[in-house]
Design goal:
Low-confidence stretches: none
Strand content: 15-25%
Distance between the termini: 42 Å
Number of domains: 2
Shape: globular
Number of helices: 11
CATH topology of the largest domain: Jelly Rolls
CATH class of the largest domain: Mainly Beta
Radius of gyration: 19 Å
Length: 289
């Protein structure tokens, strides 16, 4: 059986949504699943999508709604791996918690269409290029909003998705999600990291917290997340830095410190490696979109 990575997404206690633009050389995340729902808008890129038991091509303009714990990944076409900097994988990603508005969606008749949408998304939903221009416009705008405005725009996106009759379910009706995973220990570790990733955390400390020696912990952590502990921690910090760059009017040095980097040079180097830009370039490009 092919290994499927259980991705652990980072959410704050007061924010049920994670909304961002993405801009990659190519898609690189392996086959994975997560308990959160995910909307992926592909503004630029072509390639192959793997969702549940379905394999098909994707193109610029496509929109996907991935349900809770549904295995999936996107693979860019081969030309994206040849170092051509003119080719990018760009768009918008929205991730939201499984229990998002649980009571309203399950008890109020006004939300019945959204409830049905979520149920369908457990097999994946596809909105084809060129047929959902309003939805594309909303997805291009939502990362630029914050607070209540972003939340209201998100509800408008769900409303638009739930009311279209032209959406297509991706996996076949006989698809059964048999993904099995052990969550007890890794959930404890990820919860610890979510609360402490902006401070210095040694491998010895986190291994001790998981009641394992360092070698065993490194093997265990990578088998559960698909990443080394060091890279996972850096990804969390860079993700937080991206948010601070767009949402806070503070210096690069302050952001570096708040994200847990000991030196600004290490922060700049890591940020560019992860995003393709130095922090100042990233901020300028994202705020000008």
């Amino acid at each position: 059986m092919k290994t499927i990575m259980n991705e652990r997404l980072l959410f704050s206690e007061i924010a049920p949504l994670s909304v961002r633009f993405y801009d990659y050389n190519h898609f690189s995340y392996p086959l994975h699943f997560h308990s959160e729902y995910e909307i992926i808008y592909i503004q630029e890129s072509t390639g192959t999508r793997f969702v549940g038991n379905n394999i098909a091509t994707y193109e610029a303009g496509d929109i996907l709604l991935i349900g809770s714990n549904l295995p999936h990944y996107l693979k860019s076409d081969e030309m994206y791996y040849l170092g051509n900097t003119d080719l990018r994988a760009k768009g918008t990603i929205i991730q939201f918690e499984k229990e998002f508005m649980y009571y309203a969606i399950n008890h109020y008749p006004q939300f019945i269409k959204i409830k049905n949408l979520f149920q369908e998304s457990l097999r994946g939903i596809y909105f084809a290029k060129g047929h959902f221009l309003k939805l594309q416009d909303l997805l291009e705008k939502i990362p630029l909003e914050n607070g209540l405005n972003q939340f209201m725009l998100f509800l408008e996106i769900l409303k638009e998705m739930s009311e279209t009759i032209n959406r297509k379910t991706i996996s076949t009706t006989d698809f059964v999600n048999e993904t099995i995973y052990d969550t007890a220990r890794i959930d404890k570790v990820i919860s610890f990291l979510n609360k402490n990733y902006t401070r210095s955390i040694s491998l010895e400390e986190i291994a001790s917290f998981a009641a394992m020696n360092t070698s065993a912990f490194c093997r265990y952590f990578k088998s559960k997340t698909g990443k080394s502990f060091k890279n996972y921690l850096l990804d969390m910090r860079i993700g937080f830095a991206c948010k601070l760059l767009l949402m806070e009017d503070i210096s690069i040095s302050q952001i570096s410190s708040r994200c847990g980097f000991e030196t600004i040079s290490h922060f700049n180097k890591t940020f560019k490696k992860n995003t393709g830009y130095v922090p100042s370039q990233y901020k300028k490009i994202m705020l000008s979109r």
